[in-house]
């Protein structure tokens, strides 16, 4: 049985009775058990429940009863998205034993279409990081070379889809966390427009910029998931009511006559040589398909890393203030402690990166420094948004490599936060301005490591974005994951 089929193929084959959901799921869990010791994408497996659901769906199909549009599709979920009855740890000791009493809205929607959740996947603690090394449960490894990082923070999502442990995964993207692992693991990852997908049940890191986004092996699969998870949600008042779009339709509209802006600040200096040459090849491919490519300068993005880390840390320090190990938390005796001493003792159990962000965030929000840092960062954000608005008066899409560098070795940058922060330079603009962006696998480097190309569109233009991404996907043929 081919576990590497697309979501579209899975649905068609189950519908036609060519494969049974039970058998597909059984083989999926077999594969998970076989390769997890090398990859470590999962924190929690949901095998018993998943197998019961699979049998149930097969029965319904046989009895010609109504079945949801996903027909038992195996899906993994980043462990900062709540799934009822399953642990939701955020890869933190703080939530090690937290079992969610409810489903996130995206989960309710996917379940109602008969998706099967195979398990919860690894991330950097509270989604803060770009490599999945900052997990309380240990790092996830890149299926293309297990000595390398899979990107992050949704590294478990990227690795599980890339290595055929599931067909689709949900991640969250605050500053690139869906697109970075998509690029490093050679899969597709979408950060939707802010407000298109409900964040209800996503544990907040920086709620003014983050979105839940799908990861899949094919662009058409991303469109199928977006059709299901997008839409207004009364439980998240930042969601907007847009008319139904039908993202999966007309994906092959092509890019002929489309104007694509090549972002000057993200395609020039500082790029790895192979990333740069892959980017040039992608541009030539799109041109040969009839797109017109012009250079677009967004000079405000030169300050985007500073602005992003100021705003995201400020929001994180506020959001994470609730973790006091009293309302929920790990087993820790409070006998003999005075209140403040207890709180400070338990909060020292956050990992180093989360601690760094909370301290930085509290500092930039403090009375004496608010104007100097936080306010300035918000001004940069406004400048970026206004330059993005201007750019989309001239072009349909923007393009740059998703990551400026190739995947690197586990441990190589873990002690150098600034280097890690700088690797987000091409992804954070979409978060600060709220626009959608997608990473499409485009090439494998000479050393066997994936390179992804990023396309960006104006707010709520996911349809156009997916059409561009589909054209790019079809223009290249990639080798299969070696694991
Ligand atoms: N690397 C970025 C950070 O550490 C992005 C993380 C994310 O998108 N969740 O904040």
The secondary-structure element order is HHEHEHEHEHEEHEHHEHHHHEHHEEH
Q: How many helical stretches? A: 16
What structural class is derived from the secondary structure elements?
Answer: alpha/beta
CATH class of the domain at 7-251 and 403-474: Alpha Beta
CATH topology of the domain at 7-251 and 403-474: Amidase signature (AS) enzymes
**How confident overall, as mean pLDDT?**
96
- The Cα radius of gyration reads 21 Å
- Specify the helix fraction band: 25-40%
Query: Which molecules are bound in this entry?
Result: glutamine
Provide the CATH superfamily of the domain at 7-251 and 403-474: Amidase signature (AS) domain
Through-space gap between termini: 16 Å
> What portion of residues belong to β-strands?
5-15%
Biggest beta sheet summary: 11 strands, mixed
CATH architecture of the domain at 7-251 and 403-474: Alpha-Beta Complex
**Low-confidence region ranges:** none
SS elements, strand count? 11
Query: Based on CA inertia axes, which overall geometry fits?
Result: globular
Please give the order of strands in the largest beta sheet. 1-3-2-4-6-5-10-11-9-7-8
Protein architecture, described:
The protein has about 475 residues and is an alpha/beta fold. The chain has a domain at about 5-250 and about 405-475: Alpha-Beta Complex (Amidase signature (AS) enzymes). It contains 16 helices and 11 strands. It has helices at about 5-15, 20-40, 45-60, 105-110, 155-160, 180-185, 220-230, 265, 275-290, 305-320, 340-345, 350-365, 370-395, 415-420, 430-435, 460-475; strands spanning about 40-45, 75-80, 115-120, 170-175, 190, 210-215, 260-265, 290-295, 395-400, 435-445, 450-455. Strands 1-3-2-4-6-5-10-11-9-7-8 form an 11-stranded mixed beta sheet, sandwiched between helices. Helix 7 (about 220-230) runs antiparallel to helix 16 and helix 10 (about 305-320) packs across helix 13. It starts with 6 loop residues before the first helix and ends in a 9-residue tail after the last helix. The model has no long low-confidence stretch (mean pLDDT about 95). Bound molecules: glutamine.
